[in-house]
């Protein structure tokens, strides 16, 4: 029996359940194309079933689908992070400094961005905080700029999304620039 014939009898619900099982055992994020190929279905059908699964998970379930760069994985719902950490005996999630959070926000909203680009916005050198974020896997090198010296471009990772309980970058709150009168007086930016 061919693969196509082997799965052609599956109902939409069975396909969705099969996709859920594949995501559960996947070592990391996978593309809808990989799921479609495994199930011998069309990519569009895999995407439709992923959307349906996402709706099911949003309805007060303990799991979520997390998307990053066209790939998807199952994660636990962010509201249960403390319980999962307790159950697994993990230390509380390592807190990020305010400088790290500031740098991450710049990268998340401006990506891809160079370190000098981050420095220009923050007004201070970001070498140390960038090294820290890279080592934590929250940002990564995503290419090189075309300018002089071809500086490294940085972007956020799937771990960034997981850390903040986001399903995709589209879930970031809208970016609103402060006007001069809204900016607090004094030292608004933080050094490393």
TrEMBL record:
Residues 36-63 form a coiled coil. The keyword Coiled coil applies. SUPFAM superfamilies: Winged helix' DNA-binding domain (SSF46785). GO terms for cellular component: cytoplasm. It is found in: Cytoplasm. It comes from the Bacteria. GO terms for biological process: cell division; chromosome separation; DNA replication. The keyword Cytoplasm applies. Keywords: Cell cycle, Cell division, Chromosome partition, Coiled coil, Cytoplasm. NCBIfam families: SMC-Scp complex subunit ScpB. Participates in chromosomal partition during cell division. May act via the formation of a condensin-like complex containing Smc and ScpA that pull DNA away from mid-cell into both cell halves. Belongs to the ScpB family. Homodimer. Homodimerization may be required to stabilize the binding of ScpA to the Smc head domains. Component of a cohesin-like complex composed of ScpA, ScpB and the Smc homodimer, in which ScpA and ScpB bind to the head domain of Smc. The presence of the three proteins is required for the association of the complex with DNA. This is Segregation and condensation protein B. It comes from Ornatilinea apprima.
């Amino acid at each position: 029996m061919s693969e196509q014939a082997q799965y052609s009898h599956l109902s939409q619900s069975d396909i969705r359940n099969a996709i859920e099982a594949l995501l559960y055992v996947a070592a990391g994020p996978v593309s809808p194309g990989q799921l479609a190929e495994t199930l011998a279905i069309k990519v569009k059908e895999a995407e439709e079933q992923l959307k349906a699964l996402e709706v099911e998970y949003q309805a007060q379930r303990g799991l979520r689908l997390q998307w990053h760069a066209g790939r998807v994985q199952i994660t636990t719902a962010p509201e249960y992070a403390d319980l999962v950490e307790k159950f697994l005996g993990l230390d509380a999630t390592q807190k990020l400094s305010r400088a790290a959070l500031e740098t991450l926000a710049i990268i998340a909203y401006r990506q891809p961005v160079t370190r000098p680009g981050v420095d220009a916005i923050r007004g201070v050198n970001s070498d140390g905080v960038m090294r820290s974020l890279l080592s934590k896997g929250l940002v990564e090198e995503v290419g090189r700029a075309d300018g002089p010296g071809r500086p490294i471009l940085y972007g956020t990772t799937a771990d960034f999304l997981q850390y903040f309980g986001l399903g995709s970058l589209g879930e970031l709150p809208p970016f609103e620039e402060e006007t001069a009168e809204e900016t607090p007086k004094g030292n608004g930016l933080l050094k490393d």
